[in-house]
Design brief:
With 143 residues, this protein is of the alpha+beta class. It contains 3 helices and 7 strands. The chain has a single domain, classed as Electron Transport, Fmn-binding Protein, Chain A (Pnp Oxidase, Chain A, Roll). Helix content is 21%, strand content 43%. It is globular, with a radius of gyration of 15 Å. The N and C termini lie close together (11 Å).
Length: 143
């Protein structure tokens, strides 16, 4: 499997909230979600109920995008990623693997029945100013 490079994976693991972007009928929408990233599956995992707008939109259009950003005002420390990928509701064996990973990171979530979703990224662009102003690290699933 073609996985993103270590600097991208390390950044993803240092954070726990992403902004998710969906759309329906040419109307965009964003929300924030707690996530865990499973390296060996190259998979973002998050929980959300079926009644939410973003789940409704993901079911109609499963190709989504997202972003994770380090909040800083220091130009030389700016880091963040933007990604696109295919979303899906998890079930079966992969659900159990994802649930274990999610509960390890967010144990308080054990008090609720979780509907788990995944995003399998196909593109990630990381801005990494610590490597030099405007430095971009690009990963494509196909490359």
């Amino acid at each position: 499997m073609n996985l993103p490079e270590k600097r991208i994976i390390d950044f993803i693991h240092k954070h726990h909230i992403f902004t998710l972007a969906t759309a329906a009928n040419n109307i965009p929408y964003t929300c924030t979600c707690f996530y865990v990233f499973i390296d060996e599956l190259n998979l973002f995992v998050f929980t959300s109920d079926h009644g939410t707008r973003h789940v409704y939109e993901m079911l109609k259009q499963p190709l989504v995008s997202g972003a994770i950003a380090l909040e800083t005002t220091m130009i030389g420390k700016i880091q963040g990623i933007q990604f696109t990928g295919l979303s899906a509701e998890l079930e079966g064996d992969i659900y159990e693997t994802a649930l274990n990973a999610y509960l390890k990171k967010f144990p308080v979530a054990a008090f609720k029945k979780l509907v788990l979703w995944s995003i399998q990224p196909d593109f990630i662009k990381m801005t990494h100013n610590r490597l030099g102003f405007g430095t971009k690290l690009i990963w494509n699933h196909d490359s």
